[in-house]
Write the structure tokens for this entry.
Amino acid sequence: MKTIRTIIADDHAVLRMGLSALFSTQKDLEVVGQSCDGEAAVRDAALLKPDVVVMDLMMPGKDGATATAEILEALPETKIVILTTFGTSDGIANALNAGATGALMKNDPTSDLVA
């Protein structure tokens, strides 16, 4: 079974730790990095070359849509899933236009994110 290498990018440490704990219960998921903002996500993705980045949309500095575009420019095979509290259609559309694979709300069931 192939392990899916994942980076969690969110400016809230508690959320990063919670998602990391959730993912650690899955045999096919491995958290290889946690990024505290969009700039760190771009830098960490270049270094760690994950299969998937779970990306917060609204972060200080570089937002999730901008970070998504930059990651995919360097690593086009990486899948990026937007995870957001603010489900505005413009923000999500910007991330999808930047190449994100999909978007979920932070209050969606955890089973949706794991899937």
Remarks:
- Residues 42 and 71 are 6 Å apart (CA to CA).
- Helices lie at 13-24, 38-48, 64-74, 89-97, 110-114.
